[in-house]
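Give me structure tokens for this 503-residue protein.
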Amino acid sequence: MAAPRRLRASRVLAGFGLVTLAALLFADLDLARPDPWLTLRRIGAGLLSPEIGDPAALAYAAALTVAFAVCGVFAGALAGFALSFGYRLRPIRALCILVRSVHELFWALLLLSITGLGPLTGVLAIALPYAGIFAKVFAEYLAEADPAAGRALPRRTPALSRLLWSRLPLALPELGAYTLYRLECGLRSSAVLGFVGLPTLGYLLETDFRQANYGAAAATLGVYLALILPIRYWMRLRLAPLWLGASVWLLSRHPAPPMGDGALWRFLGDAVPAPIRSGDWAGLWPWLGKLLGEQALPGVIATLILSQLALALAAAVAVTGFPLIVRRVTGRAGALLGHLALVLSRSIPDYMLAFLILQVTGPSKLPAILALGLHNGAIIAHLMGRQGDALVSRLRPDAPHGLRLAAWELLPRLSGNFFALCLYRWEIIVRDSAILGLLGIATLGFYVDAAVQELRTDRAVLLLVVSALLTLGIDTLSGWIRGRMRLSAPGMRQAEPEQAEAA
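Here you go.
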């Protein structure tokens, strides 16, 4: 059977360009605030003069942010490690796909009605989706380990024993390195959990901004950056047991509000569609049709519009941003400044960045597009810039310098990686577009949040299923396009779009 015809990059670019133009026609990009420049000046003044009103509260929130991240990531890693041994089995693989397709904030919203506003909610909100991610990545690491050691074992050695004694020792360094990288992602997730009420740095940041206390907000943001920027220096593998023990101790001392007996069973009962609970099976289809037509469909359309514009902005940021960290383009000082700009853009979670921009522009799709585009574009630009810097040494001696080098030498050579990286990030952008509805933007997350606030768990669960299916659909389409274009990005796994950041 003949191989499918290769999909040309020009056609993919043209297709995405047309879809982006169509999305622009329906996007709400208006500035809702009457004087955004006044708000921006006040925020700028606060950033220039940070104020630490309560040092003890700020330090405690920072400690809880780290504790949630450490406990959630290690719990997810343990669960993912156990699941990785059976990842080839379809039920286990389907379970992992399901849990990782739901954002941490969505998990937190669901868990609040079961475990309350306590430590367990924060740990599980991170651990559940991370377990699905770890399972797939760990399974691929184990599968890719050198099989030579297994040939020395007796023929009748069970498959699990063969895996444990031959492949696992070879894969352990990569498993440890990836787990440490995931802690950086977990720290971002932990900070964002504060926006649903958990007492992390995100909670203080939201409170300070809503009270227009911009100096205190600047101090909170500064503490967060002081934690995440040097994380690879203070979070080492040999120190992981110490950090884990300290985090467990801190969370065990943090008070958890009582939820009463039977909270889990009440949640499971409320998750059953209302017509079924009342015995009205005939009313199930009208209930389902109304929910899908009036909430799910508009939410999906808004999510796709937002994600498409964010993807286009991310691509533009990547193309213009990657030369900033190539020393032969911008010089040593320019590359240092470029690194700083890209690191800051990718270190601040897109949800937090959208919230900050929202304070200036007011509620519309504009802050979400800017936040998603800048955050994801910085990630792609960082990876392309590193690849471009490595390419410079292999260019001919008379190769040009500056922007001509970036435009005529590096970009053509990196175009395949550029498309692959953008397509990898597409699924993440769609997933995060849905969750940004919690900020009042009418994506799927907006309707999920409304259902949770109204205690309509059945509606929230169904909308989350729609969100997960949308994410999986985009991931499948992205994989199909990458396959037809025959693309691969060095250091990036199909299972984990962000893994190359750990390289």
